[in-house]
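Customer ticket, subject: "Can you confirm the structure for DUF4397 domain-containing protein?"

Message body: Hello, I'm evaluating your service for our small team and ran a test protein. I'd like someone to confirm that this is what the system normally returns, since I don't have a reference to compare against.
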Amino acid sequence: MIRIYSQRNFSRFIRERSIVLIALILVTVFASCKKINFEGSPGTLAVFNALDDQINLYTNFSGSHPFNYSTASLIRNKEFQPNNYRYKIDRAPLPLALFASTDTLPKDEPVLKLDLDLKAGDTYSLFVYGQKDAAKHLLLKDLIPGVKEKDSLVWVRFINLSGFPNISFNIAGNDPGALVSDLAYEQNSGFLQLPADHTVFNYVFEVRDKSTGSLLFSLTTERINDYTNLYNGWFNRPNTLVFAGIPGASGTNAPKLFMMANR
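Agent reply: Thanks for trying us out. I re-ran your input and got the following:
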């Protein structure tokens, strides 16, 4: 009887250990399927900070907290630096937590925490806007126009992240809404193609309240046809003009157009 009892215990021991081993293998398999590394074909993610009240943001791609703020990328409010605010995508899903520059203690919560489902080789723009305590975001997959030989063009995309429910865009001197007749809140126009040959010195883009036709803001481009400049931010380049701010506000929250370079 003692020998039979020992065999049963041994058989139970083997079964239990086998179940544990199979479970560990399955967890490993599922974990490896869940995370994808973009080897040899990374994408890019550009982040534009359009939050109200001039809030700057720290980026955290580690998926853990606390982290080292001294080495984190700081995204300044309502400005875009192509070399600093565009990030390489090397895996999916991509964890991203954005912390206000004033909230750097271990107990502080992020303004926004995302797991971005991105694709290898693609280009994305992430817009963060609204109030700090109720931040919103909009993720766009960018279809960047290609440049052909001897092209003299600019491409402009408009996006409405302001408190105005409906706005329109035109070039100064043209009818209201001639470029974009009606752009609702949180919507974008897609890239519009405009000439940039020797006859075009600059463009003055006007944004208007759709319901009243009143001018809300105008932005003048710089040296579109200046072919001698080492870096021309407009000629043969795509840009997004972000309309952000609070209706009726002044100072840092005044409704304005802000430029985001897409290449």
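A couple of notes from the result: Helices lie at 2-34. Residues 17 and 23 are 10 Å apart (CA to CA). Feel free to reply with more questions.
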